[in-house]
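During the reporting period, our protein records have gained a structure token line. One record among many is quoted in full directly below:
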Amino acid sequence: MRDAILTARGLEKRFETGGGLLSVPTIIHAVNGVDLDIVQGETFAIVGESGCGKSTLARLLLRLIDPSAGTVTYDGRDLTSLPAGDMRALRSELQFIFQDPFSSLNPRMTVETIVGEPLMVHSRLSRRERRDKVRELLTKVGLRPEHADRYPHEFSGGQRQRICVARALASGPKLLIGDEPVSALDVSVQAQIVNLLEDLKDDFGLTLIVIAHDLSVIRHMADRIAVMYLGEVVELAATEDLFTNPRHPYTRALLSAIPVPVPGDRARPAHLGGDIPSPANPPSGCKFHTRCPHATEICARERPVLTGEGHRTACHHWQDLPPADIGARLDAPRSGTAERRFALYRAAAETRP
């Protein structure tokens, strides 16, 4: 394995909600004991249900919020203990693309001001040089130089996301995190943005971390995947290994729920009992045991540790589970919306925007 550019150890984040003169605040366990190693030059994906802690983890990795416990190390430097001034200087190497491209752009600024702002902060370019650089970046992301004089409301959703990408690239980052960067876009535009990010990754030598819940996007672009459940990583593996040989019951449930429009193309979705537990009152032991069809007494008593070489799983019984019939179903012939979506992602590898 190549050298890790970013590592997280024992990362935790707890939020306090409510509370007052006569009441005790509620503690939300958003992220709980996460260990990660992000390898230089890879595309690393973090997936899971809404509310599982993906976005919170992404913000912790770039220290957009401070952790309650644990450390994040970037290129040999501990971000969690770095002084504010040093952290500010390091921001040029660590950039973030937010989920909603419209709310993350100032509607009163022109595109030139939005994209040029990081250049003002992190470079010594003259005003003319910044202007030229902005137009170069807009061209890189598939927009026209004259778009620099327009405002965000004059663009479509896909174009606005391209502006966000150009702004993130302006400071010359080494690590780029996208928090569901295509979830608010149409399927055809999603394919364009996904392949734009892949092209830019190669052109700029980036390391990408992608937060997503759309597994078809992730299978197309990620090298490795971490699956989160209720603030914890329950499985981590290379993409094709995860899709063809999922070990954790929760991962199997996620993959079995992928919509397939043709009857008979898939086995019955894995059955999960109960509701998602509250992060304010998580279960003891394995947090998934309240919904897992394979849970036993040890699952309620002891928290499983993420173990394994390469393909890592946090489950007491994964070795005893029958083989998952997932890979064959995902590779079966598709039609309708699912087929069009997969065709867009695969065809885009040959036809770049």
About this structure: The radius of gyration is 21 Å. The first helix runs from residue 54 to 61. The mean pLDDT is 85.
